[in-house]
Amino acid sequence: MTLFWPIVAIIAGLAGLTLGGDFLVRGAERLAFLFRISPLVVGLTVVAFGTSAPEAAVTVQAAWIGSEIGVGNVVGSNIFNILFILGLSATLVPLVVSSQLIRRDVPLMVVCSIAVYLAVLNGTWGRTEGAVAVVVLLAYTIWIVRSARRETMLETAAKNNSVDSPDGLTESRSTGIVFVDLAYVVGGLALLIVASRVLIWGSVEVARAWQISELVIGLTIIAAGTSLPEVVTSIVASLRGQRDIAVGNIVGSNLFNLLFVMGLAGVVSPNPLSIPDKALWFDFPIMVVVAIACLPIFFDGKINRWEGFLFLFYYVAYVVYMILNESGSGYLSPFTKMLYFFAVPLTLLTLALSIRSAISRKRIAP
Hints:
Layout: H1 4-34, H2 39-51, H3 53-65, H4 69-92, E1 95-96, H5 99-119, E2 124-125, H6 127-158, H7 171-176, H8 178-210, H9 214-226, H10 228-239, H11 243-268, E3 273-274, H12 277-298, E4 302-303, H13 305-327, H14 332-364
Antiparallel strand pairs: 1-4, 2-3
Helix pairs in contact: 1-2, 1-8, 2-11, 3-4, 3-8, 3-11, 4-9, 4-10, 4-11, 4-12, 4-13, 5-11, 5-12, 6-11, 10-11, 13-14
């Protein structure tokens, strides 16, 4: 079998996922406006969940057929979201991090990353773990939406109902086209499901032909491809000054991936998902470390350009390491030593200086 049609399937699948994610976000964002939800909460919930829908579609489909692509997709997407998307967004425009994210959502992302890793240490992810993860996400979503609605109602009363809507729409007009928005949501979900099937088929065929493991395909090509909606959303939001949405989208997407995507995959899979040893002892720990690294970076209340470059550097290093390891290259050992003895100590020193500077500024602040 030639690789022409599998490659066409990958391209078509990625395009379909991007278009479906765009439809879903567009409709959901307008519907969220009707409930007067703040931009940060929209980023954490509606936009984050919508842009993570491709990951959900691909991972659930992969879990149903027993492919390793699904697990690799979740882990790879979380690493890609923080290191590449936040890194690229911050290099374009320094990002301001909400104090709410620092106090509540980022620590929750770290806790969930560690909890999921501990849950898969036995080498499997089953229905019990999946069901617990989904319940945790539902509780978290209900809590932040209720809190946001209370805060927004108070702010609205103070401003005499002066609220801007997406795309300049008034609330009455948004209510009048609610069915159109629902059609966007339903059509986007349908497109995501079809595109995910096409993408998985093409990726599995290419992996088999090139003798590349499905795990690596999921960690790289699929993870980057299904994260395209997050790339577009965060970059556009940061350039337009909606920095709460830009950062909240990434944090919310990672929580959604860990709790709902992994959770639903565990629930629908006929058998407990098997976690490859390579992912268990390398990729999952990298995901946890990347989540923890957000705490000192975000502690300052912003993500500077140099920190964005640092994120991008580590994503490139992560991909290069995987390629060298998969190919059995002789350059793997010197590359690993370079990271251990140069990049890691330099990063730790830089982060320590950043934290010290942030603490100093807080002490002298009036």
